[in-house]
Design brief:
heterodimer; A: alpha/beta; six-stranded mixed beta sheet; 10 helices; 25% strand; globular; B: mainly alpha; 0% strand
Chain lengths: 250, 254
């Protein structure tokens, strides 16, 4: 379970997160939506400990991580699998080396065992025969799948997707959405999906939160969303340029 | 006011490089190194630099030989060409020119490589997998530059001396045997030592400055700025440290 309380984070003069409160329950797929530049990626990086907050707390399965020493934080971080917005595959390594990166660094498995695990995991995301390719030889959708394979190969407790469908074509988007749904059913892990693509997000999520101006202004399930009276959220759902959300607020 | 700010920025910069050095040494001896990555770096940093270093070192040798011969002509001492070319190259020009070539070719490439990893979230990905970017990226480059720079500089010195010989042989009919005997008679252990000390220092400067600049970008525009900063700041630090080391060697009698 992830619990975020009163989380604040600034970059220089600019306060990006202004007291975030958020709860992601164990085993659920949770959606975090918000406009581009709303601070979603900053919140994610705080949750996995890549950034330290200025104030507030983040609790992962009962462990408060914001004050942890780096070595302890690193161990907590290994519970997460993160699919980056840009896929973030290591471009100097082959697909096999990318997907097997965690196993190579943190386990004593032989090369053959790692290759077998990589092949199995690539099959799980619908890819085969690309182990020796380099990331630049793959399409955007394939890179995303390889990134998902790299994130799930070590069975993390929590899987985080940062804008999983950004920059790929509509057919690839549909495949990625099906893949995320399928993985959630098969692996039964907690998933946090961050996106500004509402259609994709609502297909995947059981509960969701809306981040605006550095604050969570809505948290609930899809039913709560249908009944919401918050005009800012309604404007976002409609995708309308007229309404209470002004350019200044993002 | 602007001057004060610049001084503060300079100290901040040097302090940040200092922390990078501390972290690098912290990781250097903590675990078994992956020799595959070191060898990959040696091929990229050392072997791939050889053609450019060869070309420039050879022509620098030719240029120094002509300039030296021009001065010596006034004293009818052209025969002293060999020792003067050798000493200029081994003590000073070999390490400095070699370092400037490596800073421009390899340092820029290290900064661009790490910078593009930073903006494409690959550095974040490393940290997510519990891997320190200092350990994974900086340490192999530092070790490689530490190993490759002295070798490259000795090689550059040799090519420069060969360039000097071409001038000596063609203009003053100095034989191969005589030229190289005069060269090696003139070179003492301390000359070679001072050249090697400079090459190790310059290699470290290039490694730390180029890696530090690589971690700075937040966007693709920042990458090109970081590459420029990497080359310019490496050049400045190489020349400053050359001056300091030359003065130290002079006063220490090395």
């Amino acid at each position: 379970m992830i619990k975020v309380r009163n989380l604040c984070r600034s970059f220089g003069e600019k306060q990006v997160l202004k007291g975030i409160n958020l709860t992601v329950n164990k085993g659920e797929t949770f959606l975090l939506i918000g406009r581009s530049g709303a601070g979603k990626s900053v919140l994610l990086k705080n949750i996995i400990g890549l950034l330290r907050p200025d104030s507030g707390t983040i609790t992962i399965d009962g462990v408060e991580i914001t004050q942890l020493a780096n070595d302890k934080l690193e161990k907590i971080r290994l519970q997460f699998g993160l699919v980056f917005q840009s896929s973030a595959l290591f471009d100097f390594l082959t697909v096999e080396e990318n997907v097997g990166f965690f196993l190579t660094r943190h386990t004593d498995l032989s090369k053959k065992e790692i290759r077998n695990r990589v092949t199995e995991t690539l099959a799980l995301v619908g890819l085969k025969g690309i182990e020796d390719s380099y990331p630049y030889e793959l399409s955007g959708g394939m890179r995303k799948r390889v990134a998902i394979a790299r994130a799930v190969i070590y069975n993390p407790k929590i899987l985080i997707y940062d804008e999983p469908t950004t920059g790929i074509d509509p057919i690839a988007v549909d495949k990625i959405v099906s893949l995320i749904e399928d993985l959630h059913k098969r692996l039964a892990i907690t998933s946090l999906v961050v996106t500004h693509d509402l259609e994709v997000g609502l297909k995947l999520a059981e509960r969701l939160a809306f981040l605006l101006g550095g604050k969570i202004i809505f948290e609930g399930d899809k039913k709560d969303l249908e009944n919401t009276a918050d005009e800012r959220l309604i404007q976002f759902l409609k995708g309308s340029s007229g309404g209470p959300i002004k350019e200044m607020e993002v | 006011m602007i001057l004060l700010r610049r001084v503060a920025e300079l100290f901040h910069y040097l302090g940040s490089i200092g922390f990078l050095i501390k972290d690098t040494f912290g990781w250097l001896f903590t675990k078994k190194r992956d020799f595959k990555s070191i060898i990959r770096e040696i091929v990229f940093i050392g072997i791939d630099s050889l053609p450019l270093v060869s070309l420039i070192a050879f022509f620098i040798g030719v240029i120094i030989a002509f300039q030296t011969a021009y001065q010596l002509k006034a004293f009818s001492s052209e025969i002293q060409l060999a020792p003067l070319v050798a000493l200029s190259l081994v003590r000073e020009l070999g390490p400095v020119i070699g370092a400037l070539i490596v800073a421009a070719r390899i340092g820029a490439s290290i900064t661009a490589g790490i910078g593009s990893m930073k903006i494409s979230e690959q550095i974040d990905a490393l940290e997510t997998f519990g891997v320190s970017p200092i350990d994974y990226l900086v340490v192999p480059k530092f070790v490689t530059l530490l190993v490759c720079m002295p070798v490259l500089i000795i090689y550059a010195d040799f090519l420069g001396i060969l360039g000097g010989y071409v001038v000596g042989a063609s203009k003053f009919s100095i034989s191969f045997g005589l030229y190289f005997r005069m060269t090696f008679d003139a070179l003492g252990g301390r000359d070679i030592l001072s050249g090697l000390a400079k090459s190790v220092t310059f290699g470290s400067i290039i490694a730390f400055v180029s890696c530090y600049e690589g971690f700075q970008p937040f966007s693709s525009i920042d990458v090109s700025r970081s590459v420029t900063n990497s080359v310019v700041r490496s050049f400045i630090l190489i020349i400053v440290f050359d001056c300091i080391l030359t003065a130290i060697f002079y006063f220490a009698g090395v």
